[in-house]
Automatic annotation (TrEMBL):
Protein name: tRNA-2-methylthio-N(6)-dimethylallyladenosine synthase
Swiss-Prot/TrEMBL keywords: 4Fe-4S, Cytoplasm, Iron, Iron-sulfur, Metal-binding, S-adenosyl-L-methionine, Transferase, tRNA processing
Family according to the record: Belongs to the methylthiotransferase family. MiaB subfamily.
Role summary: Catalyzes the methylthiolation of N6-(dimethylallyl)adenosine (i(6)A), leading to the formation of 2-methylthio-N6-(dimethylallyl)adenosine (ms(2)i(6)A) at position 37 in tRNAs that read codons beginning with uridine.
Compartments, as annotated in UniProt: Cytoplasm
Organism: Slackia equolifaciens
Catalytic activity, as annotated: N(6)-dimethylallyladenosine(37) in tRNA + (sulfur carrier)-SH + AH2 + 2 S-adenosyl-L-methionine = 2-methylsulfanyl-N(6)-dimethylallyladenosine(37) in tRNA + (sulfur carrier)-H + 5'-deoxyadenosine + L-methionine + A + S-adenosyl-L-homocysteine + 2 H(+)
Binding-site residues, [4Fe-4S] cluster 2: C164, C168, C171
UniProt lineage: Bacteria, Bacillati, Actinomycetota, Coriobacteriia, Eggerthellales
Quaternary structure (record): Monomer.
UniProt-listed Pfam families: Radical_SAM (PF04055), TRAM (PF01938), UPF0004 (PF00919)
Gene Ontology terms, MF aspect: 4 iron, 4 sulfur cluster binding; metal ion binding; tRNA-2-methylthio-N(6)-dimethylallyladenosine(37) synthase activity
Length: 451
């Protein structure tokens, strides 16, 4: 029997969907060894942090959080000498032993390439009463071969690639996730099939750049084949993240008009509207190329919702550059824009670029963009008022227990009154028609139409 049997653990997950998925694998693995997941750290003998270092704020927060649980007593009845603290994910990968030097009460450090070793490292650290640090340069296996414990039984992440080859000059991901590797098409489709058999209704295909899927295996990108293969499993909803504009092909775009289960929502990070900045970022497309992609996507799927990521204050960004970004955001009509202030990441090429723009100027640019984004999201949502949308119900609303909440095909949050006498458990994970009465900036609300 594993020495982890009946031990309690809690998970803290930060960062992107890759981390969320890795956390599902970690929970699945630990539970398969008999450990029990609990919600709060007070009840946990083991705390696992799955970390992100995409921006500095994430780093700083982690240090504070790990330090803050130091003095919380172990749950009563535990035979451990102390709570086991494990740090994995991208900070684990980047810092390795340095984390133990900075935070001596940390017991295990693991990285992004060896999550399957966590149980063993943890058992050794418990038995020997000392630290374990292991990070690997590249993975021996795909973490997708591990058991998984899905947060929602009806929705699944399905990684099709790991790592990234793009080396955008601001970005740490290629250094902490390694080179891009694709799973075989057969593997991906087989997993999709088994997810569907297991009751999954929505699959989100994951990769840092899903559009370059297959280049390492087949010599050419074959993301369109993935979409067709997964669509043929009959899963009700397919989404994917993330797309790189330089690799989004006409073949993939056309599928938005062909595959009924490919949802009408596309996240296409543009980062900047200035060609000069895009070049300095090593994005390898121009703002015009990006606009052309949007036109093509809208030609095949006029009702599609678009979202994007923007970095404000990249080194050397002038007022004109920012204006180009602002104008682009305004003209595209996004439903959602994730806006970030540039954060210098040690070891990336941009960290060496001269950065003289005052903080206040960047902050003001950021705020004006955030205002624009809100207006744009509000305007985009108005088109849904009066329409009936299929909503995948996830649970009751956090604010009001008499309301249920879910997502539309366009990935907009929808709230609706829970029908009289209906238990939420009966609706969770089902797709129901909702007539939209009200369209706000970040959500829609309406009434479930009973058939
Ligand atoms: N692979 C994905 C995104 C990964 S990171 C893609 O290329 O789209 C998510 C977002 O974080 C990026 O799109 C970018 O907008 C932002 N980001 C990455 N590095 C950053 C940095 N150093 N400072 C600020 N934002 C950053
Ligand atoms: Fe980072 Fe660029 Fe790779 Fe995205 S495509 S993960 S932004 S290097
Ligand atoms: Fe963060 Fe790592 Fe994802 S740095 S954004 S968790 S790949």
């Amino acid at each position: 029997m594993s020495s982890l049997s009946e031990r309690t653990f809690c998970l803290y997950t930060y960062g992107c969907q890759m981390n969320e998925h890795d956390s599902e694998r970690i929970a699945g693995m630990l539970e398969s060894l008999g450990a029990i997941q609990v919600e709060s750290v007070e009840d946990a003998e083991i705390a696992v942090f799955v970390t992100c270092c995409i921006r500095e704020a994430a780093d700083v927060r982690l240090m504070g959080q790990v330090a803050s649980i130091k003095n919380i007593p172990l749950p009563s009845g535990s035979d451990l000498k102390k709570r086991m603290i494990c740090i994995g994910g991208c900070i684990g990968q980047r810092d390795g032993q340095k984390l133990i030097d900075a935070l001596p009460h940390v017991d295990v450090v693991f990285g992004t390439q060896n999550i399957e070793h966590l149980p063993l490292l943890l058992e050794e650290a418990i038995q020997e009463g000392d630290h374990r640090v292991e990070t690997l340069e590249s993975a021996a296996t795909f973490s997708t071969d591990l058991p998984s414990k899905r947060v929602h039984p009806w929705a699944a992440w399905l990684p099709i690639t790991v790592g990234c080859n793009n080396f955008c000059t601001y970005c740490i991901v290629p250094y902490v996730r390694g080179r891009e590797r694709s799973r075989t098409l057969e593997d991906v489709v087989a997993e999709a099939r088994s997810l569907v058999a297991d009751g999954v209704r929505e699959i989100t295909l994951l990769g840092q750049n899903v559009n370059s899927y297959g280049r390492d295996l087949y010599g050419e990108p074959r993301f369109a084949d993935v979409l067709r293969g997964v669509s043929a499993t009959g899963v009700e909803r397919i989404r994917f993240a993330t797309s790189h504009p330089k690799d989004l092909t006409d073949e993939v775009i056309a599928l938005f008009g062909e595959l009924p289960n490919l949802m009408p929502a596309l996240h296409l990070p543009v980062q900047s509207g200035s060609d000069q900045i895009l070049k300095a970022m090593n994005r390898r497309y121009t703002a015009d190329h990006y606009r052309g992609l949007v036109d093509k996507v809208r030609a095949v799927c006029p009702d599609i919702s678009l979202s994007t990521d923007i970095i404000v204050g990249f080194p050397g960004e002038t007022e004109e550059d920012f204006q180009a970004t602002y104008d682009l955001v305004k003209s595209i009509g996004y439903s959602q824009v994730f806006t970030f202030i540039y954060s210098r990441r040690e070891g990336t090429p941009a960290a060496k670029m001269e950065d003289t723009t005052p903080r206040e100027v960047i902050q003001a640019r950021f705020e004006s963009l955030v205002d624009l984004v809100q207006d744009s999201a509000h305007e985009q949502n108005q088109r849904f008022a009066g329409r009936t949308l299929d909503v995948l119900i996830e649970g009751t609303s956090k604010r009001d227990g008499s309301m249920c909440t879910g997502h539309s095909p366009h990935n907009v949050t929808v709230h609706a009154k829970l029908p009289e006498g209906m238990a939420i458990e009966r609706l969770q994970g089902t797709i129901v028609p909702v007539r939209i009465d009200e369209a706000k900036t970040w959500y829609l609300s309406g009434e479930i139409i009973r058939g």
